[in-house]
Amino acid sequence: MHTKTMEGLLGANTNINLINTPLRVCEEAERRGDTATMERAMGYANELSEQAEEYKTKAEKGMEEEAEAAKEKAEIEREEAIQNCKEEREALEKRIEETRDKNTDIVEISKDGKASLEENINSNTTASNSGVFAGTTADAIQIEPVVYTESGEISQSQAESGTNISVSV
Fold first, then answer.
1. How far is Cα 105 from Cα 43, in angstroms, rounded to an integer?
2. What is the Cα–Cα distance from 60 to 65, expressed in whole angstroms?
3. Which of the residue ranges 16-25, 59-68, 76-85, 159-168 would you say has the lowest mean pLDDT?
4. pTM of the complete model
5. For residues 34 and 91, what is the distance between their CA atoms, to the nearest angstrom?
6. Which of 43, 168, 45, 36 is nearest to 108 (CA)?
């Protein structure tokens, strides 16, 4: 909480609580019929009321300054986040540009793909521990690389041509 806000709220609260004393004196003087004491007590009550209003104004100014500071802080944080995103994007574009210059392909595996891979590894490990290998199904992964021609046939000669393929995960 801002200092001005706290000071304003405490001052207003204190002055409002202090008003009770002159009001009580005023009521007692009214019962006795002492108008001079009543006027003096009401004067004190008015002074305390005015001071409470001043502190209320001070608290409102403090809250406005606090809100302004919060807006500025949020703006700065938003600008920093935007700047970080731009820097990350530039770094990614630079990395992509570097890999394009090398005439390579990039393969990125999504989080879902990584999770699926972990499941497959864990299921293969548990299955191999029980004596049954889970990788012997019809859709098992081939170990040797295969290159297909435009007609869809397997071409072993292209695989041995020396083309470099870089895969980064």
1. 88
2. 9
3. 159-168
4. 0.45
5. 85
6. 168
